[in-house]
Write a structure and sequence with these properties.
Number of helices: 3
Helix content: 25-40%
Structural class: alpha+beta
Strand order of the largest sheet: 1-2-3-4-5-6-7
Strand content: 35-45%
Order of helices and strands: HHEEEEEEEH
Shape: elongated
Amino acid sequence: MKSFTCIIVCGLLLLSCRSAVDQSQSAHAQVEPTTMEVLAKEKLGEGFKTASRLNRLLVWKSVAQGQVVFLVFDSEKGSIVYEEYNPVRSVSWHADDEIKVRPYARIPSESPENEEYYVNITTNEKRTWQKVNR
């Protein structure tokens, strides 16, 4: 009985070692960059960040202190569906098909260009906060 238990334990140990070697080899394998990564590097350069929502990926990069540029990539279409290269203060998901954009403040502060706005990624329609909450 003891020898049978020893054989089982040794067999399990060998299998776990083999699994660890296979995982290590696959981790070192070269991974082809995705279409999104290629497009993001082409448009924004290195050092971009991402946030996903359903089949869409919001990709942004800081270009100066407190300023970002961004694009939205649709993985089903394999293409960019919205892009903004005028620096803004921040961008984030508002809903599954909508992003919230906070523009970089300009003078005078009451200027309509200073208002945050929402972009529907499906229709590319821009709306201000007042239009969203009517």
